[in-house]
Amino acid sequence: MGLDRGEGIGLGLVIVGLLLLLAVFYAGYTAYKTTNLQVNVNGSNAVQVLGVSAQVLINLLVKLAFLGISLAAGSIIISKGVDLLKKCPKQEV
Hints:
The chain is built from 2 helices and no strands. By secondary structure, it is an all-alpha fold.
């Protein structure tokens, strides 16, 4: 009546993938709420403005890359878990 090994592993992978996707969503949402895109540079030096803007953009790109990789990993884990659950034979009662 219980789960066999393949079903247990598949279900575990689906749960881990969902938890990872929820963690990515939470991290992305908190980063969205706390990100300040205003660039305050004293003076009118164009080099300073470009330097600060580049730092802000690079920081955002690093965060987006991390979130994208985590999102891809979560979706791959979920798909492998679902594939494993599909391949398990149904036990008839």
